[in-house]
Amino acid sequence: MTPPERLLTVTPRHTASGPFVIEVAGELDHHTARLLASAVEEAPFDSHGVIIDLSGLVYCDSTGITVLVTAYRRAQAAGSPLSLAGVRPDQMRVFSVVGLDQVFTFHPSAEAALSSLHQ
Description:
alpha/beta
């Protein structure tokens, strides 16, 4: 029996107010991480900032975390703000265990992240 295909959707979009949003939904793992890695590579890390909306994420393994750390490094190198939005409590626990809660800026939603970038 073939295992079910792991699904991940990555939807990059520009916002009228400037920041670039990457919406991630589904399972982010070693089978699907290349989709997010590609979006991170193509994202315009500029003064407007990048928001990675994880509110639709149901699973994230170490490969997915590596892609997020890569995004953080790109943002730091470019001097661009980077926020993670909509991280569920179980996923936040993983971020805390590995110390990434001290590295990333978190917001409860993409809308909250957008408004914080305009203050």
